[in-house]
Design a protein that fits this description.
Strands 1, 2, 3, 4, 5 and 6 form a 6-stranded mixed β-sheet that branches. This protein folds into 2 domains: about 30 residues, no CATH class; about 160 residues, Carbonic anhydrase (Beta-carbonic Anhydrase, Chain A, 3-Layer(aba) Sandwich). The longest helix is centred in the last third of the chain and has 22 residues. It is of the alpha/beta class and about 200 residues long. It is about 45% helix and about 15% strand. The structure holds cobalt (II) ion (CO). Cobalt (II) ion binds next to helix 5. Cobalt (II) ion (CO) binds next to helix 5.
């Protein structure tokens, strides 16, 4: 049975084009990867990590989940982080959220959404802690967008508090953790100015 033939067709065309431009491309990649960046982003299909920063396969190590969370008991995320920092020796960890994030919106709503409510509970709790400081008169959409930014800053702090990053900084490894946000409306990234390096 042929399944999803269109995707296989796309794949063959893509592989053909990659080797036409660079005949050694796959041979080189198969031998090793040496990305300089780890991307921690949202699973949202509209935020394709490599594409929006113009990086080729092999240049970006990627972890994505709903609402770009970094939890200290999430062995999936921590394993990716540890491999990226200890083995691949990436120099930058980029936590990238996006405006209009459905996961963040769900955390701010009173409705039940199912299993994902457990996943986003820390965002709901974070909102409860900081909502008093929100400016007056925000629309619901602006409130969500503000929380998307605060969530990125919180996940940057979480990355910095992992044993992986603290150990890397303790042994003098160069590593910067960045907090960025992506706008679905114009495709542009914004640096939220919450970067941390070992010195900070
Ligand atoms: Co999202």
């Amino acid at each position: 049975m042929k399944t999803l033939p269109g995707l296989f067709e796309n794949n063959r065309r893509w592989a053909r084009e990659m080797t036409r431009d660079d005949p050694d491309f796959f041979r080189r990649l198969a031998a090793q990867q040496s990305p300089r960046y780890l991307w921690i982003g949202c699973s949202d299909s509209r935020v394709p990590a490599n594409e929006i920063v113009g990086l080729a396969p092999g240049e970006l190590f990627v972890h994505r989940n709903v609402a770009n969370r970094v939890g200290h008991t999430d062995f999936n995320c921590l394993s990716v982080l540890q491999y990226a920092v200890d083995v691949l020796r990436v120099e930058h960890v980029i936590v990238c959220g996006h405006y209009g994030c459905g996961g963040v919106a769900a955390a701010l709503s009173e409705q039940r959404h199912g299993l994902v409510d457990n996943w986003i509970e820390p965002i709901r709790a974070h909102y409860a802690r900081c909502r008093e400081a929100f400016p007056e008169g925000l629309t619901p959409a602006e409130r969500i967008d503000r929380m998307c930014e605060l969530n990125v800053a919180e996940q940057v702090r979480n990355v910095c508090r992992t044993t992986v990053v603290r150990d890397a900084w303790a042994r003098g490894q160069r590593l910067v953790v960045h907090g960025w946000i992506y706008s679905l409306r114009d495709g542009l990234l914004h640096d939220l100015g919450v970067s941390r390096s070992g010195a900070g």
